[in-house]
Write a structure and sequence with these properties.
This is YbfB/YjiJ family MFS transporter. Keywords: Membrane, Transmembrane, Transmembrane helix. The chain has 84 residues and is mainly alpha-helical. It has one domain. 63% of the residues lie in helices and 0% in strands. Helix 1 packs antiparallel against helix 2. The chain starts with a helix and ends in a 24-residue tail after the last helix. The mean pLDDT is 84.
């Protein structure tokens, strides 16, 4: 896991939840179940959506070394080291 995807999780969660809530309301579902379901789906999909966005941002950065991703030892990166 990289730290950029953690930051992007907040933004993608807001966009997904807002979009799903607008979709539910535009389909005429004016109940708390529909809005709660939209919020739950947005919450569950926020990190899986943020991770590929983070990967794409880093792939398009000319100064980023994408090959260092394979050198990660654990799930969480060491905060004293450079970004994964």
């Amino acid at each position: 896991m990289d730290r950029l995807s953690i930051i992007l999780t907040f933004f993608t969660g807001a966009v997904l939840t807002g979009g799903l809530a607008i979709l539910a309301l535009s389909l005429g579902w004016y109940s708390w179940w529909a809005l709660g379901g939209a919020a739950a789906i947005g919450f569950l999909l926020s990190w899986p959506a943020a991770y590929p966005i983070s990967r794409r941002i880093k792939r398009q950065d000319p100064f980023w070394d994408e090959t260092r991703v394979d050198e990660v030892d654990g799930v969480l990166p060491d905060p004293t080291h450079r970004e994964v």
